[in-house]
Each structure stands twice: as C-alpha cells, then as structure tokens.
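Feature request disguised as a bug report, sorry. It would help if multi-protein outputs had a clear separator. Right now it looks like this:
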Amino acid sequence: MKPKKSVFISTGEISGDIYASEIIKRLKEKGDLEVFALGGECSVQAGANLIYDTTAIATFGFLELLTTFHQWKRVWNITKKILKCNPPSVVILIDNPGFNLRIVRLCHQIGIPIIYFIPPQVWVWRRRRAMLLSRCVDWILTIFPWEEHYFKGGQAQVKWVGHPVALKVPYFKSFSSIKAAKKIVFLPGSRKKEINEYLKVIKKVIVRFLNQHPDYDLFMVLASERYKENVKKQLLGLPIHIKKREDLYQVLQGSSLSISCSGTITLEVALMGIPQIIVYRISNFTYFLARLLLKKRFIGLPNILLNREAYPELIQNNFNSDNLLQTIETMINENWRESSAQKNAQEIRKILTYGDTYSQVVGVIENYLR
C-alpha cells in the first residue's frame, strides 16, 4: 500500500489563509491527500491539519515583531521538527516572507521541493531575496505581471499566474445604474496593532461626521471574528454596524465610500468600483525604516498598479481625524464615484487577470503528488 501523499502549506496573513484554503479545497477534490498548515480558520475549514494559527500572530515591522517573537520561535521549532522527521511531498509557501524564507533555506538543505506562491515583493524593497529564491526554490508563482523577471536566472521555474483577487471579486458591469447609498464602509485591517491604530482615528471621525451627516449609515467589516469583542468595546455607543468578512461584497455594493486600511483589501474595494481612502499607521521607527527601503511612491496597491494616486492616501501622521474628515467630505461632495471608480476597476482587473489563478497553482503542485 502506497503511503498517503502530503503537502505542507505555510502562510501568515488572513489574506494568505484565504488563498491557502482555496488551494487545499481544490487539491482535496482531486484525491486523498494529507495537508499540514501554518495558517488559520479558513485552512481548517478547507480540510487542513492546523499546526499553528499564524494568522493570530501576524505583524508588520521590527518593533511590532518583538511582541510576537516568542510565538514565532515556537512555530519555527515545530515546523523544523515536522519537516525533518516527516518530510512532505512538497512545501507550498504563501507570502509571509519574514518566516517563509527560513523554511526555504531548511527545505533546500533537506531536499524538499518548494513552491512559492506570492513571493516577496522584491520590486518594492529587499531585492536580494530574489536571488535566494531563484537559487533555492523549485517554482515561483507570481501574482503581478512585472514580477517574473526579478526571479529569473536561477534554478527556479517562474510563472505569472494572475492575482487570485481578480477571480474572487464579483464583476459588476455598471455601477452607473446603481444609485450610491449614503453608506460608508470602514475596513480596519487584519492585524491587531493596525486595527487599534485605525480605531484611534476612526472613533473621533465618526462622531464629527455624523454631526454633519446624520442620514449616513456606517458599517465596519472585520477580517476575523477574533477581533469582534475588542472592536465592539472600542466603538461602544457609536452607531456603526459590525459585519463579518463574508459579508464584505454585499456591504460594499452601492456604498458611497470605503476607508480602507492598506493591504489586499484595497484591491477588492477597487475591483468593486467603490471610491476609497487608503490609510495606514505603524510605529514611527518601522515607518522610518520602510521609507528608507521602499522603492515606490505609493503604499496602496491600486495606486501602485495604476501608477497614479487614483485613491487618496493618508499615511502615518497624515492619518489623523482632521485630514480624514476633510478627505471624506471632499469625496462624497464631488461625485467622485461616477467619474473614476468604475474606470479604475476595469483597468485594475485587466492588469491582474491571467486565467484561473488557482487552477494554475494546483497544476504545478500536482506534479509533485504523482
């Protein structure tokens, strides 16, 4: 009797966990397979054996990492033991380079095949990572069309597979026939630290905005239910509806505006044809380091893709209640939605789409499961 094939998947962010779950589902449909995962609740629902919930300890920045260092050290020790004692048929890494690059080095030493889906954004910073991956990884599957050439020149096979968000977000042919509701959606991010920073500003803005616009409905969509009690406590007494991640597209449709924490969610909002303000705040030390290393003018993915500030950005100290309130007033009073949002959505969808992303990823993985 042949031993059951197994795969090891590692991701950190909630967005990566969502991508991992779709890959796991499709792999499971094709045959009996054991899946071990560093991920979150989505991977579990798809049928993976969860080794550790890494979505609960995801951070960005050096100082922020210090708060979860001991948890990540424990994850590394568990991972190392599993890979050495029970090597899988293939390892699939999704984003999360701070941790996953350690797995790359270990698997390369052991001789376990590695597929890196959503590699580090070396076109933004730390280009030396591209050399490591092209030398040590078997397959690099990129989500942006310009990434391929950064990873060529080594042993790795490199392929652009399109962005999974382009498949995930519903395509609405026209928003001109849908009258924008007096509704603003707040999207606070997927990490505890960034959510808390977001809420500090938003609490002040909500009170001031509703004093001037009492006829608006306000919604907040959370990346995970684990943050619900904390958010409800901080927004106690404020008239805002708290919704689950799976309600995102229903809530967004027909909205006047979204206040979006920088990240993959900004692409989803853009593809829905909804105007948005992209915001972000981290520790001043992390921001200073990031600015030294970043090679892009913008932080928001839609703006990077379009190479213009299609959506206003309020970053670090500029993300304050006065600036945000002023930007909200400008956008809801200028009919911004009809003139720009749908055009942006079409441009971004065209840039990101390249067939069925997940089918291409699963097709590469299957080569190691025969």
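(second protein starts here, but nothing in the output says so)
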Amino acid sequence: MEQNKLRWEVPIIIPSYEPDEKLPGLLRNLRDTGFQNIILVNDGSGEAYAHFFEEAKEVYGCVVLHHAVNQGKGRALKTAFNYCLREFCALPGVITADSDGQHSPECILACADELIAHPDCLILGCRCFEGKDVPARSEFGNKCTRIVMRYLTGITVSDTQTGLRGIPVSFMEELLMVKGERFEFETNMLLETKSRHIPILEVPIQTIYIEENKTSHFNPIKDSLKIYMIFGKFLFSSLSSSVVDLVLFSMLCFLMRDMRRGGITYITAATVFARILSALYNYLLNLKMVFQSDSPVKNTLPRYILLAVIQMSLSAFLVGRLYPLFGGAEVLVKIPVDILLFFLSFVIQREFVYANKR
C-alpha cells in the first residue's frame, strides 16, 4: 500500500464524553482534509448529546461506538482499539485525538506519517508549554508530571498529557490488557513503553487551548497516581525493611543473649544476621513489587549486594569527612547524607540493579 494512500486510511480514534460544538467542527475538518476512517466513541454521554453522534455518523461518515454509561477515557480507547484490531488489522496502527479541537488535522496527519515511517514506535504529538496562551493549570500539571516521571521511571517526554498519539498494532494489542479505565490509562501507556522496550518518538504540534482548556477532565495528581505509587512502594519497602531489621535484631538478641563464640558477641551476631535477612527481604520486595523486574536473580542479586556495599561505604566516608565541619554532630550529618543516598539508590536500582532484560 502506497504511503500517500496509507496516511489517509490510518484510523483516527476520538473518545468523547458530553461533547459540544467543537466536535462537529473537528470531524468536518478531518473529512475535508481527507481522512477516511474516523472512529468516534460515545462514552455514555446521555440523550442530551445524542444528536452530536448521530450527526457524526450520518453527515461525516464516522463509525460510532457507544458505551451505555460513562466508563472513562481509558475504557473508551480500549473499546476503539478492539474494534480497529478486528477491522483494520492490516494497517500499521491508529491515531488517537481529543474531541475538544486541541488537535488540528495537520498535526494529526503529521503523527500518522510518523507512525507509518516508524511502525514499532509510540508516537506522541507534543505541545510547547511556553507562552502566555498556555493555561497555568496545564503548564503546571505537565511540568510537574514530566519531572516526576523522569525521576521515578526514567521516561523522558516533553508532553506527558498529550492525547494525540500514534499507536502501532502490536502495542495496541498489549494495551488491551493494561490497567486503567480513565485518564490514568494514558499515563500507564507511557509506563508500558519502558517495560516493553518500545521507543517513543515526539512530533512537535500546535499548542491550541480553547476557553483555557476548561472542558478538560484531567487531574495531573489523581491521573498520574501510578507514577507516584512507584516511589511510594520503594519508600514502603525501605521503611518496612528497617522494621524487619529491628524486630529480627530484638528477637535474635533475646535468643542469643547467653551465647558467645570466640570474640563475637551476641550483639554482633544478632546485628549481622538481622541485617542479612532484612536485606534479602528488601531485595525481593524491590524485585517483585517496586520495580517488577523480569531479570534473573543471578543478575540482580550481585548488583544489589554491590550497591549496598558501595552505599554503606559512601555513607561512612561522607559522614566521616563532613562531621568535623559541623562541630562533631555525627547524627545531624548522617541524616542528610543518607537521605541523599536514598534518592540516588532509587535511580541506580531502577536503571541498573533491576533493569529489565532486553
């Protein structure tokens, strides 16, 4: 199939909930531009909005899929993915766009061309968030999520919230099984690219905000919860490991109080055994729950041990060097040093210790 013809046949998926007059305008422009396959999902908008979807079908020739009740953007996208996988399986993928007019036909076409040229990549139509016309809520939400995502997941994208995306067929099949029924699904989609080693390509697009984006239902905190949960689980893993270490130490001290082997006291023995067992607990928790790595233990465990030794040595070195500068207050020096190493350890574990095999 020739690329010039294929670009017009790539399905355009538009999820819509309680649309206004901007929807018919978008559909008209898409048809006038030349797009042939427009898939519109009515996400339980109700009878008051039925005329928009009737017009889409009768006037603009759209395929309209219906939800009886509002199920969220994520579910609407999955409904459309399932339809497209059955009806357009020979095409390279689909383009998703918002129904509020933020994405022009020219930008949608640019993403379709990029998808055809790179059928194994996730294509993101990325806006520029500089300028007086960008609503403060959108600018803050994107910048905040972008920074947090880069640190917590290692994924670097300039527009985490964009609804204009080119999704290849192979990835679309996998996304049907990904959790998330509402806006969080788009965040989860980005997270899946890392675990499945799917490259992300960005396409610069126009930054269009109508009525300061008042109709958007996106919440940058609530709908990015999965990103924050990664660090939350890491924090839980670390704190619970400390509790396990303390409990084991107490139990072992009680059991070994009258025991002595050479120059080894029961306190030393209890400390070593408790630390080994709590470290094993921490390692397994990070492997299975926090980073959900599929790398074998023979690779991850030596890396974890190496990191633990380096982190402990670095902590001792830095505290030893710095505490004389602060009047000999060892504890006050150790707290910020260990906090810094804690955040650094998170990144190293994510990118090195538990990095998924390719």
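Even a blank line would do. Unrelated, but nice: The chain has two domains: 3-220, 230-353.
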